[in-house]
Specification:
By secondary structure, the protein is mainly α. The chain has 6 helices and no strands. It has helices spanning 2-16, 21-28, 32-45, 64-72, 76-86, 102-120. The radius of gyration is 29 Å and the shape is extended. It starts with a helix and ends in a 19-residue tail after the last helix. Residues 50-71 are annotated as: Disordered. It is found in: Nucleus. One of its GO terms (cellular component) is nucleus. Residues 57-66 have a biased composition (Polar residues).
């Protein structure tokens, strides 16, 4: 960890001296992406410390099948099949989605109305695609 801290300090010092990212990467023998991310983090936060990492939540249900299998002294696959087939349980992970503000919702509704008006006239059914290849069957 100490080496990484020294490496980050070296990157920041070289950057402050006007060195280009490619030069810093070549000199230190690291990727230019690592240099870029370190400089960006320094400019945003004013610190060259590592980005904080998220720790695994010990209450996560991700390990429950494994724990159940160990407790029942059966294989993980057997435990999974019992949960799925016999108990009709499904593995489910809550998916993160973008949060829409009122302005985005309003814009979405307006675009939906435009599409509904456009397709209400059934004009899309009169489109003929003429780029199809015609094959002659003569031999």
């Amino acid at each position: 960890m100490k080496q990484l801290q020294n490496l980050r300090e070296s990157i920041i010092i070289a950057h402050n001296r006007g060195k280009k990212q490619a030069e810093i990467a070549d000199f230190l023998g690291i990727s230019q992406g690592a240099v870029s991310k370190t400089i960006k983090r320094f400019e945003e936060t004013g610190s060259n410390r590592a980005k904080g990492m998220f720790k695994r939540n010990p209450n996560t249900k991700a390990n429950s099948t494994r724990k159940l299998a160990k407790k029942l002294r059966v294989s993980q696959e057997s435990a999974r099949k019992i949960l799925k087939d016999d108990l009709k349980l499904k593995p489910y992970k809550l998916q993160k989605r973008q949060k829409l503000n009122e302005e985005a919702k309003k814009k979405c509704r307006e675009r939906c109305r435009v599409l509904l008006r456009r397709f209400d006239k059934q004009s899309h059914r009169r489109i003929i695609f003429s780029d199809e290849k015609l094959f002659d069957i003569q031999q």
